[in-house]
């Protein structure tokens, strides 16, 4: 059961930020496991279980990120990440780029959570626009629902050349190369409390219709193929 992160958790993340090398990390590996990795795993597991209770059809996998950077992509940075996250998803690894994830991330100065559809395959985003062209009403309903609350907002990279959406309210959705519906917040007392789990469960429950909408895009017909 998740009991909350601690000041030690945040101090450890700041420690990596300013001491990103093996000589600092290796003697503190057990601290990393006890104050960061294990609480993150407990939080993810609790949310995974609760979402399954609320949405029995939605069996999700849990993945907690590695603290180690990919050695092929250091680009002058240290070998460790100064943030950690978990993701919940419903597909196998070989299908990455076709489905979104639910995520929570903790960094030294902020935390965030939401639904992310990062680095989707280009054909999937073509299917996204084709679905809007066929019938924009389902996404418009989701857009209007999002506009009525202040926890989450749409974000993501857009095409430099704007594409014309069939409905003006959906222009931002229509022009995304990747997208997320998320919340970002400076560190606050909630991360030190078991109540963080309930906050995430309620938020992910709100996001589930968005997750379902984008999870099904991969099965749409390929708009590049004429019938």
What do you see in this structure?
With 227 residues, the chain is α+β, with helices and mostly antiparallel strands. The chain is built from 7 helices and 6 strands; from the N terminus they run αααββββααβαβα. A 6-stranded antiparallel β-sheet has the order 1-2-3-4-6-5, covered by helices on one side. Helix 3 (29-54) crosses helix 7 (195-215). The longest helix is centred in the first third of the chain and has 26 residues, at 29-54. It starts with 6 loop residues before the first helix and ends in a 12-residue tail after the last helix.
- The proportion of strand residues reads 15-25%
Number of helices, where a helix is a run of at least 4 consecutive DSSP H or I residues: 7
Structural class: alpha+beta
Report on the biggest sheet: 6 strands, antiparallel
Order of helices and strands: HHHEEEEHHEHEH
Structural shape: globular
Measured between the Cα atoms of the first and last residue, the distance is 52 Å
* Percent range of helical residues: 40-55%
List the helices and strands and how they pair.
Elements: H1 7-18, H2 22-25, H3 29-54, E1 61-64, E2 84-89, E3 101-106, E4 110-117, H4 122-134, H5 137-147, E5 153-155, H6 171-174, E6 179-186, H7 195-215
Antiparallel strand pairs: 1-2, 2-3, 3-4, 4-6, 5-6
Helix pairs in contact: 3-7
């Amino acid at each position: 059961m998740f009991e909350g992160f601690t000041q030690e958790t945040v101090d450890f993340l700041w420690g990596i930020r300013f001491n990103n090398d093996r000589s600092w990390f290796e003697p503190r590996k057990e601290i990393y496991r006890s104050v960061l990795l294990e609480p993150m795993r407990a939080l993810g597991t609790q949310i995974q279980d609760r979402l399954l209770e609320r949405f029995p059809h939605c069996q999700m996998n849990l993945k907690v990120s590695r603290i180690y950077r990919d050695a092929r992509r250091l680009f002058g940075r240290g070998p460790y990440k100064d943030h950690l996250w978990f993701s919940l998803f419903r597909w196998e690894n070989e299908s990455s780029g076709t489905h979104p994830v639910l995520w929570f991330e903790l960094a030294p100065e902020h935390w965030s959570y939401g639904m992310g559809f990062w680095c989707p395959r280009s054909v999937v985003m073509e299917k996204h626009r084709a679905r809007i062209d066929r019938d924009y009403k389902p996404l418009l309903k989701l857009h209007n629902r999002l506009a009525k609350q202040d926890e989450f907002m749409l974000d993501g990279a857009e095409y430099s050349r704007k594409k014309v959406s069939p409905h003006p309210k959906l222009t931002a959705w229509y022009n995304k190369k990747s997208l997320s519906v998320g919340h970002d917040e400076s560190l606050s007392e909630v991360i030190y409390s078991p109540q963080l789990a309930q906050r995430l469960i309620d938020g992910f429950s709100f996001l589930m219709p968005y997750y379902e909408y984008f999870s099904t895009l991969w099965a749409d017909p390929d708009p590049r193929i004429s019938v």
